[in-house]
Amino acid sequence: MAKPRVFLSSTFFDLQQVRADLERFIREQGYDPVLNEHGNIPYGKETKLEDYCYKEISNVDILVAIVGGRFGTSSKSSPDSISQTELKTAYELNKQVYIFIDKGVYSEYRFYLSNKGNENINYTYADNIKIHEFIEFVEALPNNNTIHPFETSMDIVNFLKEQWAGLFQRFLQEQTRIKEINIIKGVEDTAKTLNQLVKFLTEEKRDKDSAINEILLSGHPAMLQIKSLLRISFRVYFTTWEELDALVRAYGYKHEEDPHPQSEEFNWYSDRNNINTTLSVKAHLFVDNKLRVLTKDEWRDDYITLQIVSAPDEDDDLPF
Questions:
Q1: CA distance 199 to 18
Q2: Residue 73 near residue 108, CB atoms below 8 Å
Q3: How far from the centroid of its chain's Cα atoms is residue 188's Cα?
Q4: Given this model, what pLDDT does residue 22 score?
Q5: Domains of the chain
Q6: Which parts of the chain fold into alpha helices (H)?
Q7: Residue partners of 253: CB distance under 8 A and separation at least 6
Q8: Pick from 121, 202, 243, 244: CA 20 to 30 A from residue 261's CA?
Q9: Measured between alpha carbons, how far is 99 from 84 in angstroms, rounded to an integer?
Q10: What SS3 state is found at 240?
Q11: Low-confidence ranges of the chain (pLDDT < 70)
Q12: CA 53 to CA 185: how far, in whole Å?
């Protein structure tokens, strides 16, 4: 079974015990620690030894960078140290990075920021000003650069325990979400397929199969529009102009005159609660007095509209 590989990046001699403690902790978690001193990095003969360290970072999942008071060995390919270049490489490869800095060094770094440019200062915790310069570079990165001061290796262990437990918990949540997303996607795909089927049946069976027409009419968008505009709480169903007229009249609407057969729309009027409204229905929704079968793709909201023609004058009730 594949295990997460954790690369430990730091100077060696001053942080040897910290590295040993972290290696033991990483193994206890069931992960694979990658440490240069234990031969975990395969070396070849084609290039410099340090380059193989940088190449190995592409094969790990996490890099733990530990910054102490020693600058360490300078890199042959950059002005930084080897451990600093390892951290930069992890950033370039977008690896998950955890950065721990000795508390004394990090406190002194604040002093460095206040005295940049003063060459006469001797630093107590850092043996090279490049350590503070590199911390400044890390803090300026836009992401993945959270720094955690430490005094002992247990400070690092406890922090990583919390972080990795949180990552695992997030992974479990995401697995649940993936199932939910797949279900939603399945519903969406099914709905899309049904819409395509309805469209096909509408085109192929329109006015040819009464059973198909009954099914298509049962979810006609005109009925949903009337239900919404008139705020009807129960299911609305009509298949002819007369049935629609009876429904609308039951809600207080009436014709001022009989509709003309050639009219482009039918209008009903209401003055309920002293508010004058007009319900307009496009005439082409009915053919030979029967409701045309339309799909949602063919429907437009302006086929049926409700318009407030006039409202009562608020000043009419004033005594002056």
A1: 69
A2: no
A3: 19
A4: 95
A5: 5-172 (3.40.50.450), 216-312 (no CATH)
A6: 16-28, 49-57, 82-92, 103-114, 129-139, 153-205, 210-218, 221-229, 241-250
A7: 268, 269, 270, 279
A8: 202
A9: 11
A10: strand
A11: 1, 39-40, 43-47, 189, 193, 196-216, 256-262, 310-320
A12: 44
- Give the pLDDT score at 231: 87
Which of 206, 208, 202 has its CA nearest to residue 297?
202
- Three-state secondary structure call for residue 148: strand
H runs (alpha helix) in 206-240: 210-218, 221-229
Cα(287)–Cα(279) distance, rounded to whole angstroms? 19
Identify the pLDDT of residue 63.
94
Q: Which is nearest to 136 in space by CA: 104, 98, 105? A: 105
- Do 199 and 294 meet the contact criterion of CB atoms below 8 Å apart? no
Distance of alpha carbon 62 from alpha carbon 33, whole angstroms: 10
**The predicted structure's pLDDT at residue 312:** 53
